[in-house]
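Write out this protein's structure.
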Amino acid sequence: MCNSDGDCRPLGFLLGLPFAFLALLVSIVGLVVWIVGLLLTCICPCCLCVTVIVECALELVKAPLHVMEWCTSQIPC
């Protein structure tokens, strides 16, 4: 995985793959929670707590990207 500076860290990418797979499973759960929460906010927009749950679920969907970025940034070479 290369960043914008042209600094490639393939070892960090390979070491991060198992963690990214686990994060992918968490993101699937987040996607289901996001869809259910979105439907609940459409049915009853007065439920403010559902909106917070939807925002947290959206962060779960982005988890694999955050994990891969973190793993590649930890490798110094």
